[in-house]
Amino acid sequence: MSTPSSPAALPPGAVLGIVGGGQLGRMSAVAAAQLGYRTHILTDEPEGPAAQVAHAVTIGAYDDPDALRRFATAVDVVTFEFENISADGLELLASLRPVRPSGHILRISQDRVAEKRFLTEAGIPVAPWREVSTPQDLSVARTDLGLPFILKTTRLGYDGKGQSRIRRDEDMQPAFDTLVPHPLVAEGMVDFACEISVMVARGLDGIAVTFDVTENRHRNGILDLSLAPARVPETIRDDARKIALRIADALDLVGLLGVEMFVDRDGQVLVNEIAPRPHNSGHWTMDACPVDQFAMHVRAVTGLPLPPAARHSDAAMKNLVGPDDMALWPAILATPGLLPHHYGKTEARPGRKMGHVNVLFPAGALPGEFGVDAALGPLAEGYGQQDDPTD
Ligand SMILES: Nc1ncnc2c1ncn2[C@@H]1O[C@H](COP(=O)(O)OP(=O)(O)O)[C@@H](O)[C@H]1O
Ligand SMILES: [Mg+2]
């Protein structure tokens, strides 16, 4: 039986294997089901967000060869929502099943030095950076980059964890001692006008599509709000999409990749980091696009054709973090226009991403800051009110 696309496309009923059991796996599994696929999750969390909606689950550590083998032999293709699997683990998976995106891409994205080296060699603009293995390297970085700069661990950083701002010389040694393991990476502080991101998907046939550029705001190192389309000039949006496409081609990507970028005060786009998987800043696509980032991800890794990454509405996405935002869940549900997505996590620890809410606006009608805030109803920050000294 031929499939609607290339001969390599998986037929309905095939099993998509996802390494990692969090919300990105959950939303990928739902998208896979819509395309007729089953999903098998490898996770160390039996009741986690992805396991709750999957056809099958292998419970095990990501570096346990037995678990990896059982998982791989039960699926038709392997993809990831958790990137930090060991090199050995990757090799084992790749010896058993197609792994998409391929291991070399994961190895680059797992390691900030490898990532910056790859981007620099590919001619992609990044903030100035130095590898820091010793106190001597640190003082070289201090001289070359100037103050302030940022010191980051090369591995396992997320939501702003594993990094430290160096504002004064006295900050250097404590940060160097606290951030482990070494080597670290030192990055020049970008005085950015805004942060943006681009989701790019690339299929088995090498054809790539990019979603519209997203504008991102962080709070306490965690993504708080995404706006689409980003409120930056057309030329900057074009640059950002071209950069994402160049990265996807240079990596020979099969799958989905999120590219985080800074727009500096001169309007130059600098790449911050890449993530070869669905990305938090692409969650607005779930309600504002006919084919969202998760469907695009599933299509890319199962060998289906990629439709245009079209957008029918403007959108804002607000993350629901920790217990405070989840206390508003009933109010969110009761507010027309808020489109809630719950990750099924039971424990609402502070700083933990529990869900998100999308709000749509007619295409071309994304309002300004106050309008977006007002549309968020119970999640509104109340700009202007919080600084009122009479409060
Ligand atoms: N070189 C930099 N200059 C200015 N801000 C930065 C720089 N690096 C990181 N940041 C800020 O810290 C946030 C988190 O850093 P990032 O490298 O993306 O790590 P994470 O893996 O935690 O997302 C960024 O989104 C940005 O707001
Ligand atoms: Mg980041």
UniProtKB/TrEMBL annotation:
Highest taxon listed in the record's lineage = Bacteria
Q: In which pathway does it act?
A: Purine metabolism; IMP biosynthesis via de novo pathway; 5-amino-1-(5-phospho-D-ribosyl)imidazole-4-carboxylate from 5-amino-1-(5-phospho-D-ribosyl)imidazole (N5-CAIR route): step 1/2
**What residues does the ATP-grasp domain cover?**
116-302
Q: Provide any one GO MF term from the record.
A: 5-(carboxyamino)imidazole ribonucleotide synthase activity
Role summary: Catalyzes the ATP-dependent conversion of 5-aminoimidazole ribonucleotide (AIR) and HCO(3)(-) to N5-carboxyaminoimidazole ribonucleotide (N5-CAIR).
- Which HAMAP family does this entry report, sorted A to Z? PurK
Family statement: Belongs to the PurK/PurT family.
User: Could you tell me the Gene Ontology terms of the biological process aspect for this record?
Assistant: 'de novo' IMP biosynthetic process
EC numbers on record = 6.3.4.18
Question: What quaternary arrangement does the UniProt entry report?
Answer: Homodimer.
Its catalytic activity?
5-amino-1-(5-phospho-beta-D-ribosyl)imidazole + hydrogencarbonate + ATP = 5-carboxyamino-1-(5-phospho-D-ribosyl)imidazole + ADP + phosphate + 2 H(+)
Binding-site list for ATP = 112, 152, 157-163, 187-190, 195, 218, 272-273
From which organism does this entry originate? Gluconacetobacter liquefaciens (Acetobacter liquefaciens)
Under the heading SUPFAM superfamilies, the entry gives: Glutathione synthetase ATP-binding domain-like, PreATP-grasp domain, Rudiment single hybrid motif
Name of the protein in question: N5-carboxyaminoimidazole ribonucleotide synthase
Q: Tell me the keywords, alphabetical order.
A: ATP-binding, Ligase, Nucleotide-binding, Purine biosynthesis
What PROSITE patterns does the record tag this protein with?
ATP_GRASP
Annotated Gene Ontology cellular components are:
cytosol
**Enzyme class label:** ligase
